[in-house]
Write a structure and sequence with these properties.
about 100 residues, about 20% strand, alpha+beta, about 50% helix, three-stranded mixed sheet, single chain
Length: about 100
């Protein structure tokens, strides 16, 4: 870890549990999105989507365009299986939204 990052890291560790929880959640979502982009790189639409949130049994996905949601609808089962196997998530539903500004 660089010296510049060390104080920030220490500062984050000293913050209340709520901030640490938010940071851990953001890191987890980033990890899931990186794995999704790598594992599904052959799918042309995957670059236009990202997992924005996971709440209870629902995966919230944002897409840059509505056309990216069409193949997602057909690959929903495979995507949920990937998330369950790779990240041990118990999600069984996808809530997909178009968010061109993500």
């Amino acid at each position: 870890m660089s010296q510049d990052a060390e104080p920030l890291h220490r500062w984050l560790q000293q913050q209340p549990a709520s901030i640490r929880g938010v940071m851990a959640r953001a890191q987890r979502l980033a990890q899931i999105n990186r794995a999704l982009q790598q594992q599904w790189a052959a799918e042309p639409w995957i670059q236009a989507v990202r997992i924005a949130n996971i709440r209870e049994n629902v995966v919230v996905i944002y897409a840059q365009t509505a056309s990216a949601l069409i193949p997602l609808r057909y690959r929903k089962t495979a995507l949920l299986a990937f998330l369950q196997q790779r990240f041990e998530l118990t999600c069984n539903e996808i809530d997909a939204k178009v968010r061109p500004d993500y």
